[in-house]
Write a structure and sequence with these properties.
32% helix; Rossmann fold; 4-stranded parallel β-sheet; alpha/beta
Length: 87
């Protein structure tokens, strides 16, 4: 079975590390890259062609603007947006 290719682009650092720790031990998931700088997300999606992008929600709990442009350009891409805290 082919592995699910994932990019992880979460802030803050602790949340990103928790996500990486959780998914990296899964045998059917390959973490392709950890993105700390949001400005590099589109470039790495284009270069690596991941199946899934895990990204942090912005301050207003709205999905980041980049999600719409990525989904328009890469309709196969699955995006999981996570909040760092709950209300």
């Amino acid at each position: 079975m082919e592995k699910i290719k994932v990019l992880v682009a979460n802030r803050p650092r602790l949340m990103r590390e928790l996500v990486l720790e959780t998914i990296s031990s899964q045998p059917d998931i390959e973490v392709m890259a950890e993105i700390q700088d949001d400005s590099k997300i589109a470039q790495l999606v284009e270069e690596l062609h991941p199946d899934c992008l895990i990204i942090g929600l912005d301050q207003s709990d709205n999905r980041p603007d980049i999600c719409d442009s990525l989904l328009e350009r890469y309709p196969h891409l699955k995006i999981l947006a996570l909040a760092s805290e709950t209300q």
